[in-house]
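Ticket #4471: structure export looks truncated?
Reporter: QA, pipeline team
Priority: medium

Steps to reproduce: submit the single chain below to the structure queue and open the exported record.
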Amino acid sequence: MKKKCLVMLLLATTLVSSIFAGCGKKKTAADPTQTSVDDGFMYVPKIDTITAGSGEEIGSMELRDGKLIYPVYTYDDDYNIKSLKLHVQDRDGGNESETEIENIFTDDKYAQNFGFVGDTIEALVVTFKEEKTEYALAKFDKSGKFVSDVPLKNIDDSGYLRCAGIDRDGFAYIMSDEYAFKVSSEGEVVSSVRLPENVMNPFMDNDGNFYVTSYGKGYEITGVDFDKKSLTEKWENVPTDADSIFDIGDGRFLIFTQDAIFEYAKEAGEATEIVKYIDMDMPTANPFAAWKNEDGTYTYIYQDWMGGKDNPDRVTLEKVEKTGEEKTKIYFATGYANEELKNAIRTFNRTSQEYRIEMTEYMNQETWDFDIDRFNADMSSGKVDVVAVRDLYDSFKPENYIDLKTYIDNDADISLSDYFENVFKACEQKGKLYTLPTSFTVSGFGANTDFVGKDEKFTFDRFLELIKNSNGKKILPEYIAPAFISECIAFAGNRFVDYENAKCDLNNDDFIALLDYAKNLPLSYDDDPAFMDFDFYGSMQKGETVLFNLSVYDAMEVQIINKVLGDKLNAVGYPGENGGEFAFNIAENYAIPTNSSNKDGAWAFLKTLLQDQYQGGDYLNGFPVKKKFYEQKIDNLMNGKSTYGGGAVTSGNTTIEVGAPTKEDVLMLKDIIDRASIVMNKDNGLMDIINEELTDYKKGGKSAAEVAEIMQNRVSIYLSEKYE
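Actual output as written to the record:
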C-alpha cells in the first residue's frame, strides 16, 4: 500500500472512531477568525498547526486520561514504513515523551489504537491482502520491543472493522457491520452483541462504556452491555449527522455534526449548539480528540484535509464580546453544501473586507427533500442573494433571476476566453445567462463501430432505425424505462416537447417506436435483479451491444471504453439533425435573484468560484470550466501525476486493466466536450407522468399507440398549466 493510500485509510479510521487524538512537536499560531454566535458575542478560534519532525508523518490518535497518544511514522523512498515512534503528551502539548516501536510494518501493514496495558504497549494491527483484510493485536514491551501478535479470532469481518480503543486491561472494543465485539489481548472474543441496522461509528465514554451511532428514525446513539450481551438505553434528541462524540465529564458530551458543534447533556437529552463551523470560517471537523477546559473554553484536534494540510490543528474556541463594525451580509441559499463550496465560502469570508456570506441549507436531512416552501418564502421576502440552482430542478423560473452576462462582461477579472465558452453558451436561455456554471460533466451515446461507422452521421432517424432493427442486439442496456423515455425527450429538442411554446407532439410513429422499445426495459433497478448484475463490458466485447450510455466525468471513461472495444468506440453523442451532439450536465451552478438587495456582493462571491483557487481544487464535481485546470488534470493523468487512474475496473465477470490515457483518448475527450451544446435538465413533473404511464403500460392491456395518446393529453395539460 502506498503512502497516500495509507494516509487515507488512517483518515477513514479517524472518521469512524471517536476517541482518537493527534498532536506533534512544533506549533505555528494562525490568525484567529471571528464569528457571531448570538447577539453581542462571537467565538474566536485560536489555532495551532501541529507538525512532526522533518520527514515524519502523524498517524491515528487517541485521548486517554488527559494524555494524547499518537504514532509518528517515517517512510522510505518506496513509501514503506521505515520507523515508528509512539508519542505521549499533555493535551496542551507539554510533557512530551516518545518510544521507538520495533518496526514490524510493511506497505500493506500498519497499526492503530495504541494503548498502555501495565508494562505492555498494545495496538490493533491491520494487514491488507488481496483476498481479505486481516486484524491482529500486537504487543510491545515498554521499551518498544516487539513481543508478539495474535490474530483476532471468530470475528465477522465481512465489512470494515472499526475499533473504539484498547482499555487498561488489554481488551479491544471493535465493531463490524453487524456486531460489537469485546476482544481479549489473546485475540479471543469475550462477548459479542448484535447491533441495530445502519450502524456507523463506535465510541467509548470515560468510564469505558461502549456506544454505537446508527441511522434509524433520525440519528440514534445506543449503549452496548457486553456483560449482559444486549443493547441498552438510547439517547434522546441526538443532533442530526452526529459524526464524532467525546465525553467531557459530568454526563456531558461534545458532538460534532457535519455543520456544527453541540454540547449534549445525556441525562436531560438536551443538545445545545455551540457554534457552526462555517460561522467561524473553519472546515467541517471530524476531530481526533475534543475536550472542555476548566475555563469553559473548548478544544478539539482535527486535520484540514480539504485545505491540503498534512498536519493536524489544535483549535481552542473562546467566546468573547463583539467589537468593530460588521460586514454586509450576503444570504446564500442551497439545498446541501458540499465541503468544496463551504471551503469557498470560508475563504471569501476571511478575505473580503466588505461582505460576509451567511448560508442557509434548505434540505430536510431527515427526508432529504428540498424545502421548497421555506425557500420560496425567503425568496419572496428578499432574504436570498445567491442561489445554488441544482436543488431547484423544474421550479427554477428565469424571470426571478438576473442576467449574469452583464456582470461577466464588465468584470476585468473574468475573460470568457479562459473558459469553455460552449458551457456558458449552453446555459443561456433566449440569449441571457441566468445561471453560472462552475463545473460540468458530459453525456451522450457511444457505439461500436462494427454497427455504427466511424464517420457516420448520427441522426434521430438513424437512432430510430437501430431501435426498430435491433434484432436481439442490446440498445442502451444501462437504461431503465423511465430514464430512457425522459432522456429521449430531452435530447430530441423540440421534436417531442417544446417548452418555449408549451406544446408537445407525442402521438406520432417515432415516439410510439420508443415506447415499444421501452416496454422491454425494467421500470427500476430493483425491478429486475439480473439487470444490476449485467456484464456491460463483456457484452460490449462480444459485440452484443450496439449503443450504450457514455457519461464522461474524466478522461478515464473514454479510455476504459476504448480498451473494452479494442479502439472500436465511436462517440456518436445524442442523435440530432446535424449528427450526434453531446449534452452538458451542470453539477454546480448559481444564480442571483432579481429582488436581491446585494447583487454586487453576490457577484463578488460568485466570481471567486470562477477563479483559480476554486477551479483548481481537487473536489470539483466533474471538469472545471476554466480550461487551464482541465488541461492540468489531463496532463497529470497522462503523466502519472494524478491520484486517479491505474488499477482495474470490473463489470460482471469482465475486468479491464486501466493505465494512463493515450493521446487518442484525450483527443476524443476534447472532441466530445467541443461537440456538447445543450444542457440536460430534469423536469420532475414530466418524469412523474412518464413513470405513471409506463407502469400502467408494463402491466399490459394497452398498446404503445394508446399510451402515446394518453401521454400526449396529460403532458399537454401539464405544459399549459406550468409554462404558458
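Status: closed, not a bug. The export was complete when the record was re-opened. Leaving a note from the reviewer for reference: Residues 208 and 714 are 62 Å apart (CA to CA).
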